[in-house]
Amino acid sequence: MLQHFGKKSSVYYKLFYPILSGSITYFLLLMAFNRIGELEESYFRAEWVVCIIISYFWNFSVLWGASFIGKKIAILSNIYEQISYHSLGVLLTSILSIGTILSVYFYYLIGYTRFENFTTEMYVFQGLFIFQTLLFECAWWGNRLIALKNKSIREEEKKRTAYISKEMRLFAEDANLPLLYETLETLIGLAYKDADKAEEYAEKLAKVYRNTINNRKEEFVAVEDAIQNVKSVVELLSDARSGGISATYKIPSDVSSSLVLPPVLLTRLIVAIANDNIASALQPLEISITIEEDALLVVAHSFNPKLDRPKALPEVMHSLEETFRLYTKIPVLSIKKGKEYIIKLPAFQVENETWKSDKKAEITTQDQSIFKRTTS
């Protein structure tokens, strides 16, 4: 709506302002040359039409000059420099356009042969239109500064919205809401049947979230710590689904202690797998976690998707890809092989066993890491 109004206003300005400008210029010229009394005989005179025509040419030249120079000065970061260069350029455009138009008028239409014959008229015209050009510049820059302010406000709103969205997404990832809802539902059921089991279940749940919160502060966690948290999550989900989830872990202890991952990711992946696949006593969900080539963490699970899939796994996979892209060029792979679905995550090799306490410890991903450091 506002854009439509702005376009219409621009058209009206181009059509009607030169008439007003030419009329004012005509009356000022009569006053400057002490000819105001001529208006008693007739308001409509040929000079009036000439002033309006000159004003149309001047207005077109100034608008074009303002637009052209405005694009060129956009590279300048200082707003005062932009105003100075723009005003000087538009003034020169106005002077050149008025000088050219009046020269053509007096040389070819009036028949003057020397510049001295219309010097006074030239100076008066130039003065009047320079004054109008300065008024135009004030209006142009007023509109431009308002537009820049509005653009700055919109950009700040976008940044604020993006920040809030990011914080909400991080909160949802930290909270792992699907796991929280399912375990709370189980906890409520246990509270009615067996208070001791409910207390034990609540302690397991609290331990998982305590580890999640603590790990979230770290850039990396050891694979063995991540596996321990996964075991607790699998136990919670297995109790919630009547033993419908089981997991096996084939990871050598010496390898798991030297490999690290970004925190929380493995837990979110296991929960997403459980949400998208049937996991019941009749159709159990089997999960296997292994290490491949001492550099890849392989998560395989039986593929038995629900009829109404929540599609949690594709969302988590997208998040995993974005996260790992910050650290390595090794891609996150997902492969469907028969009734099994395999996901391969790059793991990072720790070159210093005291990496948790040593800030100078190096973490690399072989020769493909974009963050690989060289020892000095």
Automatic annotation (TrEMBL):
The chain crosses the membrane at residues 12-34, 46-69, 90-110, 122-142. The keyword Plastid does not apply. Keywords: Membrane, Transmembrane, Transmembrane helix. Pfam families: His_kinase. GO terms for molecular function: phosphorelay sensor kinase activity. One of its GO terms (cellular component) is membrane. Signal peptide: none annotated. The keyword Transmembrane helix applies. Residues 179-236 form the Signal transduction histidine kinase internal region domain. This is Signal transduction histidine kinase internal region domain-containing protein. It comes from Flammeovirga pectinis.
